[in-house]
Amino acid sequence: MKSIKQFENKKVLVLGLARSGEAAARLLVKLGAIVTVNDGKPFDENPAAQALLEEGVKVVCGSHPIELLDENFELMVKNPGIRYDNPMVAKALEKGIPVLTEVELAYLVSDAPIIGITGSNGKTTTTTMIADVFNNSGKSGLLSGNIGFPASEVVQTATDKDVLVMELSSFQLMGVDQFCPHIAVITNLMPTHIDYHGSFEEYVAAKWNIQNKMTAEDFVVLNYNQDISKELSEKTNATVVPFSTSEKVDGAYLDNNVLYFKEEAIMAADEIGVPGTHNVENALATIAVAKLSGISNTVIKETLSHFGGVKHRLQSLGEVNGVKFYNDSKSTNILATQKALSGFDNSKVTLIAGGLDRGNEFDELVPDIQGLKAMVILGESAPRVIRAAEKAGVPYIEAEDVADATRLAFENSTAGDVVLLSPANASWDMYKNFEVRGDEFIATFEALRG
To answer: Could you say which residues bind ATP here (predicted)?
Structure first.
């Protein structure tokens, strides 16, 4: 970690804790800042605030008092989830106090080069693929950022022999200034988080911050399946490296089921360890980064062939009596389930679907579920999902919960079939979150295998 002086004896307010705020506070203390932490959760329910207080950090908990900003702070580091129209943030900006997110701190002290991955879908899978390729090549790829490892924590032990492979959300990228990865990846851009950003244009602008400080010696990897990426490619100083599944580009592309980088064949698309057209895009982005980093085709192919997916994101669990199990509990909407199904032969798939009833019908899903071997349907939305199954002519069974659904799906399957949990619904009718739902699927699979 670089020893920098710019925060010495400066008063800094860390707004919002969670893991990134806690990590930022500790890094700032290490850099000599005078740190105050403000978090909405009451102190007696706030282990992070309690720990920081014991370490000598001033903490203000239970509310966000505007008058706190009268204490002459020179910088605010905010939790990415806190909006810019939050009264504390708005007041800080009004007073001329710079507002950053903790990935900016990580960049300023990083000895390790950074590969930054952002986008609407596929960020976590692509980030994990890239880190795996680096680690399998003998180079050290450290996962960091929005993937669950705060960048300002990871950076403290990273050296110039490591690479920070950093997943970045639009929320994080709104709060950067000097941040500059050596390689940036934008997996795709879809209308999402509009409630936070106000418009798709503002959302894209936040994502595009990733390349603001890049030069021609840096690389931005863009998805040329999208016209918006082609438009953005005209607006950067970085060297653009495109990837595409639909056309031959001067980068990574798919041609006759083979993945290429600049006319050099790397591997067959059906050798990728996780199914789905979206995972071909993720693999192409990974190939572009790997080739730009001097990693061999052998390592790339081996890594992507054995990639089992990210937990709860079309995660391959293995087989029981020749039946393959895939955990895609993260699919909390119709589009995600459509993408998951695109990688399979429907005639061999028993799909587990259903969950929180948000009032929407599932007619959009009908073309994608036609030809399924069967569906196992559960949760509040079951009547709506059943209507879609009936329209698609798919036989279905109703289940009480994910464990029951998994057993029923397995009983309905024979060797060569697939049991796919891809609910197309949020989990909150029955489970605390999609992770708990996926964990129940994994536990039931392990019981069946055992």
So the answer is: 119-125
Number of structural domains in the chain: 3
Distance separating alpha carbons of residues 308 and 311, to the nearest angstrom:
9
pLDDT for 291-338, tens place per residue?
999 999 999 999 999 998 888 988 999 999 999 999 999 999 898 899
Domain co-membership, 113 together with 214: yes
What is the model's pLDDT at position 348? 97
125 marked as part of a ligand binding site: yes
Does position 221 have pLDDT exceeding 90, yes or no? yes
Question: How many other C-beta atoms can be found within 10 angstroms of the C-beta atom of residue 447?
Answer: 12
**What count of residues does the chain have?**
450
| Domain stop point among 305, 337, 357 | 305
Distance CA 340, CA 343 (A): 6
120 assigned to a ligand binding site:
yes
Boundaries of domain holding 405? 315-449
Residue 148 pLDDT > 90, yes or no? no
Is 122 known to sit in a ligand binding site? yes
For all residues of the chain together, what is the average pLDDT?
96
**Residue 157 annotated as lining a ligand binding site:** no
**Neighbour count for residue 434 (Cβ, 10 Å):** 21
- Yes or no: say if 227 and 219 are a contact pair by the CB < 8 Å rule: no
Radius of gyration from C-alpha coordinates of the chain: 23
Q: What is the pLDDT of residue 291?
A: 98
The verdict on whether residue 124 carries a ligand-binding annotation is yes
Cα torsion 279, 274, 351, 347 to 10°: value is: 100
